[in-house]
TrEMBL record:
Family: Belongs to the inositol phosphokinase (IPK) family.
GO MF: inositol hexakisphosphate kinase activity
Native source species: Oriolus oriolus
Stated name of the protein: Kinase
Highest taxon listed in the record's lineage: Eukaryota
InterPro entries: IPK, IPK_sf
PANTHER family: INOSITOL HEXAKISPHOSPHATE KINASE 3, INOSITOL POLYPHOSPHATE KINASE
Transmembrane segments: none
Protein's UniProt keywords contain Transferase: yes
EC numbers on record: 2.7.-.-
Matches recorded under Gene3D superfamilies: Inositol polyphosphate kinase
UniProt keyword terms in alphabetical order: Kinase, Transferase
A GO BP annotation: phosphatidylinositol phosphate biosynthetic process
One GO term describing the cellular component: nucleus
Length: 399
C-alpha cells in the first residue's frame, strides 16, 4: 500500500525555542515544524525575493493527527503532504516522505524504555529527552521558573536546582498537547508548516528573540486583545524603542551553561535595561564579543534597506532572531587563515532572521483580514531596526 516502507520519525520539542507561544517541533536535523496559520502560509508563498535571505526557507506542509492508546498516551502522527501532493517535493532528498510519529506520553515520555504507566513531566525525564535529542552539548542554566509547571518539580514536588534545559519550548509544547487533546478528536487532521531550522549549523546557538515594531496586534485582534497588546507595548521598550526582548539564550564560556531569559523578563526592561541585556547577549560571561558587532550591524542594515522597500507589508507581532555561535573560533591559532585577525569575522557566523508571520499583512494576501491594504513600508518596524542598530553602534564605540 501507499504507506509501506515509510520510516517513522520521532518529532521532539525544538530545544532552542526561546520565545513565541506556538509549540515548535523538530522534524529532522534541518527542519522544524509549527501549526499552520493560513496568513503565515500566504506570506511564505508570496515572499518577496529580497526578503528570502532574512527568513527561514519554507519547506512544505505535513498533516498531523492525534492518537491515544489504551493507556491514555498521546501520539501525534504526521504524514507529509496529505492533501498537498506537491508541497513536499523538495523533501525527497531526505528519503521519500516519511510518516512522522510524534510519540508522547500524556505528560512526557521518558524515552522509549518500558517505564510503566503514565509519566509525570519529571525534571529527570525532561533532562533525559533533551540529552537524547541534543547529545553532549545542551546543559542549560535558566533563570526561568514556571511555578505552575510540574515539569520543573522532581518526584517529591521539589524545585530542582536551577540547571535545566531551556524550559520555554517545553512549556509551549505541553500547552499545545493539552489544547490538542481537548480540542481535536482522533481523526481530525491538523496541518503543520515545515520550515528551515535556522540554528542547526551552530554548536552552541546563542539566540536573541526580538519583537519588532511599535504595534503588536494584528488586524484580526478583538478589542480586548488589541487593548492588551497596546498596554504591553506602552509598558515596555516597544513604545520607546520599537523593539523589545522576547527571549534569549546565551552561552557562558566561564560556566559551560546557557543563560536563558523569557518574555516576562524582556517586558520589564527599561531602555537602559534593554541595552544592558543586549550587551549581556553579546558577552561570553567574561567579556564582550566585540568581533560580532560589525557583522551583526551590517546584516541589520541590509535588512533595513529591504524592509524600507516593502510597500504595504505590516509585520505585526513578528520576531527578529539574532544568532551566533557561543563556541569561539580562535583566529589567532589559525595562522593559515588568508587574512589578519582584524578581519577575522566570517560574516556567516552571525545570522539575522525574521520569523512568525501569522499576523503579517500585505496587499494581495489571500488571507488578509484587512480589506484596505496599508500604504508604504512598516514604519514601526523600521523605527525598531534603526534603534537596534544605534544601540549596537554605541556598544561597538565602547559607550
Amino acid at each position: 500500500g501507499p504507506g509501506e516502507g515509510r520510516a517513522a520519525v520521532l518529532l521532539q520539542p525544538f530545544v532552542h525555542q526561546v520565545g513565541g507561544h506556538t509549540s515548535m517541533l523538530t522534524y529532522d536535523e534541518h527542519t522544524v515544524c509549527k501549526p499552520l496559520v493560513s496568513q503565515e502560509l500566504s506570506f511564505y508563498e508570496s515572499l518577496p525575493l529580497a526578503m528570502r535571505q532574512f527568513t527561514p526557507q519554507y519547506k512544505g506542509i505535513v498533516s498531523v493527527h492525534l492518537k491515544k492508546d489504551s493507556l491514555g498516551n498521546l501520539t501525534l502522527i504526521a504524514s507529509p503532504g496529505l492533501g498537498q501532493p506537491d508541497s513536499c517535493g523538495h523533501l525527497d532528498s531526505a528519503g521519500g516522505d516519511p510518516a512522522v510519529t510524534l510519540w508522547h506520553k500524556r505528560k512526557w515520555a521518558a524515552g522509549s524504555s518500558s517505564e510503566h504507566g503514565r509519566v509525570k513531566w519529571g525534571h529527570s525525564q525532561v533532562t533525559k529527552a533533551f540529552k537524547d535529542s541534543c547529545p553532549g552539548k545542551m546543559l542549560l542554566r535558566t533563570d526561568l521558573q514556571y511555578h505552575t509547571d510540574s515539569f520543573l518539580e522532581d518526584a517529591n514536588g521539589k524545585q530542582p536546582e536551577r540547571k535545566s534545559y531551556n524550559p520555554w519550548g517545553l512549556h509551549c509544547h505541553r500547552q499545545h498537547l493539552n489544547r490538542m487533546s481537548s480540542k481535536h478528536n482522533e481523526n481530525k487532521l491538523q496541518q503543520f508548516l515545515l520550515l528551515e531550522n535556522v540554528v542547526s549549523k551552530y554548536s552552541y546557538p546563542c539566540i536573541l528573540d526580538l519583537k519588532m515594531g511599535t504595534r503588536q496586534h494584528g488586524d484580526d485582534a478583538s478589542e480586548e486583545k488589541k487593548a492588551r497588546h497596546i498596554k504591553k507595548c506602552e509598558q515596555s521598550t516597544s513604545a520607546s524603542l520599537g523593539v523589545r526582548i522576547c527571549g534569549m539564550q546565551v552561552y557562558q564560556a566561564d560556566t559551560g551553561h546557557f543563560l536563558c531569559k523569557d518574555k516576562y523578563y524582556g517586558r520589564k526592561l527599561s531602555p537602559e535595561g534593554f541595552r544592558q541585556t543586549l550587551r549581556q547577549f553579546l558577552s561570553n560571561g567574561n567579556q564582550l564579543r566585540t568581533e560580532l558587532l560589525e557583522p551583526i550591524i551590517l546584516r541589520l542594515k541590509a535588512l533595513l534597506s529591504v524592509i524600507r522597500k516593502q510597500s504595504s507589508y505590516r509585520f505585526y507581532s513578528s520576531s527578529l532572531l539574532i544568532i551566533y555561535d557561543g563556541q569561539e573560533h580562535k583566529e589567532s591559532a589559525d595562522h593559515h587563515l588568508p587574512f589578519p585577525k582584524t578581519h577575522g569575522t566570517n560574516p556567516s557566523r552571525v545570522d539575522v532572521r525574521m520569523i512568525d508571520f501569522a499576523h503579517t499583512t500585505f496587499k494581495g494576501s489571500k488571507s488578509n483580514p484587512n480589506p484596505t491594504p496599508y500604504d508604504g513600508p512598516d514604519h514601526g518596524y523600521i523605527f525598531g531596526l534603526e534603534n537596534l542598530i544605534k544601540i549596537l553602534q554605541n556598544l561597538s564605540e565602547g559607550k
